[in-house]
């Protein structure tokens, strides 16, 4: 009888066509196994792989389209922002020019107002000085009049006697009576 191991496992040589065994030639068996695995993978994996690649391609294209749309939107917003910036700069220049002329106008108005106020203050000062001078003159006149009256009364009291006093009173009453008749 043949050895059992000889029929199932042939070490070192190729088994005959009718028997089954393990091939120990690593290079030959690897190539055969690899080609079988690759063939199975290509046959069964072709659809899955193409679906994965198509999905990936669609996502990339979609991302590119979205990026282009976003870019176009950003460009449009940039143009709008630039237009608004130009408008604002123009308006700012107009305000600046108007502001400077308004400032100059206000400055002139303020200076004119200050000069007018200074003139009014000068006039008030002069009126106050004249008023105080007039008041001082009136006070001096009042004192002079009071002193003259005191002196005259003193002179009259020392010089007048009863008869002269009665005549003076009668003359004054007569003068007042004529003044009353004229009115």
Give the secondary structure arrangement, pairings included.
Elements: H1 4-8, H2 26-159, H3 162-182
Task: Please outline the major beta sheet.
Answer: none
**What would the average pLDDT be, to the nearest integer?**
83
Distance between the termini: 188 Å
What percent of residues are in strands? Answer: under 5%
Give the overall shape, derived from the CA principal axes.
Answer: rod-shaped
Q: Please report the total strand number as a whole number.
A: 0
Relative helix content: over 70%
Task: List the total number of helices.
Answer: 3
Structural class: mainly alpha
Radius of gyration using CA atoms only: 67 Å
Order of helices and strands: HHH
Low-pLDDT regions:
1-13
């Amino acid at each position: 009888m043949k050895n059992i191991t000889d029929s199932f496992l042939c070490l070192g040589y190729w088994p005959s066509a009718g028997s089954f065994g393990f091939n120990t030639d690593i290079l030959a068996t690897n190539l055969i196994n690899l080609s079988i695995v690759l063939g199975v993978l290509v046959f069964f994996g072709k659809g899955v792989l193409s679906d994965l690649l198509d999905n990936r391609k669609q996502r990339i294209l979609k991302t590119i389209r979205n990026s282009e749309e976003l870019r176009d939107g950003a460009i449009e917003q940039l143009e709008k922002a630039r237009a608004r910036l130009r408008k604002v700069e123009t308006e700012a220049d107009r305000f600046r020019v108007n502001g400077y002329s308004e400032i100059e106008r206000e400055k002139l108005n303020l200076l004119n107002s200050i000069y007018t106020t200074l003139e009014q203050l000068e006039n008030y000062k002069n009126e106050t000085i004249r008023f105080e001078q007039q008041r001082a003159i009136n006070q001096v006149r009042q004192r002079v009049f009071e002193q003259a009256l005191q002196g005259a009364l003193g002179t009259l009291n020392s010089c007048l006697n009863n008869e002269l006093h009665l005549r003076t009173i009668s003359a004054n009453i007569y003068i007042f009576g004529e003044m009353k008749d004229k009115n």
